[in-house]
Amino acid sequence: MTKYSKDFFPPADTLVQYLNDFATKLNLKIQYNSTMHDVMKREDKLFQMWDQHDNVYTCKYVIMATGIAKPHAPYFEGHELVDGYEDLTTDLEAFEGQSVFIIGRGNAAHETAQHIMGSTNVVHMMGRSATRLAWATHYVGDLRAINNGILDTYQLKSLDGLFEASSDALNVTRSPIDGRLYMQNEFDTVPGGQVVSEVDNDATREGYDRIIRCIGFEFDFEIFHPSMNVKRA
């Protein structure tokens, strides 16, 4: 990789270029632009599957190396009002002056916060547990320093905020009054129209222009035929 980039954190496109060159140099037999489905095991112990053009493939061994590409999108009231990380624009103009609420406290969530925080009015983040820092845990899968800018603004008492809660308890509604998104609980009246007590200092009461779901990905088992009894490890 050092022949492709001198950056400590190279752009993702650099890895794509490297892998393409790797496949070309070794003359690997790769069929691109193929979407497989209904992977099944026949009575003769061979595997069979189909692509999007209904071409049939048969083989003795199947190695699943697709990674985890299906967004983890739990159900909660108002989930349809939330933007998914997988569909999020990288255009900062789309976030200019907005108040943004991010569901998640992992790498994807902090990467998103890091990217947009210079354009937003405020960023709030919610996760089930405290953020695990890679430099503290010595695990490269935890939050890396390059994406922890929002921790600075939070600790320095800026408007950005972090708090812990489960997404299962969320109830997101869009106010018919101001069009903003609100976290509603059993004591709220119409979001954006309720009378707020003078001692109420809940940072979420002002509502948000955008709520983003960034809580990771999971394996997509839909690639297998129903006859395949595939279990999680």
Automatic annotation (TrEMBL):
Membrane spanning stretches: none
Keywords: Oxidoreductase
Superkingdom, taxonomy of origin: Eukaryota
A biological-process GO annotation: ERAD pathway
A single Gene Ontology CC term: endoplasmic reticulum lumen
KW Oxidoreductase (keyword) present: yes
GO molecular function, one term: monooxygenase activity
PANTHER family with a match to the protein in the record: FAD-DEPENDENT OXIDOREDUCTASE DOMAIN-CONTAINING PROTEIN 2 (PTHR43539:SF23), FLAVIN-BINDING MONOOXYGENASE-LIKE PROTEIN (AFU_ORTHOLOGUE AFUA_4G09220) (PTHR43539)
The protein's name: Uncharacterized protein
Source organism per UniProt: Ciona savignyi (Pacific transparent sea squirt)
